[in-house]
Write a structure and sequence with these properties.
The chain is mainly alpha-helical. It is 67% helix and 3% strand.
């Protein structure tokens, strides 16, 4: 419930938007679930239909709901999560961006792997092994593997049971997609080996080893980018 001070600072449409979010949460609506129509929301919230329309526009801009022709207003696929919330697509120097992303990952992901080693279930470990197998197979076949790579790192983050980490890592791991533009065959064996070491260490409940393996994995990628940037006189 909003405090009176917080409530007073919001416009009528913003308060209505907050109430609609509360409705989504209280009713545990899944992505794709339909919301009541404009008239029903107007009556339920005791506001005018123009206020409801403006509230919906606010929620659409925040990627909480979307309007689908023929279906009405539904909960967005990833409520509240934009595809590019940090605006990476507008960064011109993609090589420097990858370096910065890897540097950020090096700061936080080893600790995430360590935490996952203490919290992952047996089912989680089975899933991680399957993803590592998929990545290795795709890499050896010289087929795109980036989606599975991102999925593995995101799943390790999910195993921490920390909502902030789970939401943050997929954004940072955008570097995995960009990174492939600048890499060569040297990363193939290293990526396969370190992915295996990370998953094996988590399976063994060895936090220190998981942290060290994740550090090696990201550090190797970071060093490749550093060498490329140095060669281009960008550092």
């Amino acid at each position: 419930m909003l405090s009176s001070l917080e409530n007073s600072r919001k416009t009528l449409s913003e308060r209505a938007a907050s109430q609609i979010v509360k409705y989504i949460l209280d009713n545990e609506l899944e992505p794709g679930s339909r919301l009541p129509n404009e008239l029903q929301l107007s009556e339920a919230l005791q506001v005018g239909r123009s206020t409801v329309r403006e509230a919906i526009r606010i929620l659409v801009s925040q990627n909480i709901v979307e309007i689908i022709r023929g279906r009405g207003t539904v909960v967005a696929n990833k409520p509240g999560v934009a595809d590019d919330p940090l605006g990476f697509q507008f960064v011109k120097d993609k090589e420097k961006l990858v370096f910065d992303l890897l540097e950020t990952r090096l700061i936080i992901e080893p600790k995430i792997a360590a935490l996952a080693a203490t919290r992952a279930t047996e089912d989680d470990i089975v899933r991680m092994n399957a993803l590592a197998n998929d990545i290795e197979r795709l890499m050896r076949q010289k087929r795109p593997h980036e989606a599975k790579d991102v999925e593995l790192h995101a799943y390790i983050a999910e195993c921490t049971e920390n909502e902030v980490i789970t939401s943050l890592i997929p954004i940072i791991n955008k570097s995995i997609y960009i990174f492939t533009e600048f890499t060569d065959k040297r990363i193939l064996k290293e990526s396969i080996d370190t992915h295996r070491q990370i998953v094996s260490s988590i399976a063994a409940r060895d936090s220190a080893a998981a942290e060290a393996a994740m550090t090696r994995h990201i550090q190797h990628n970071k060093q490749l980018i550093e060498r490329k940037l140095l060669a281009n006189h960008k550092l």
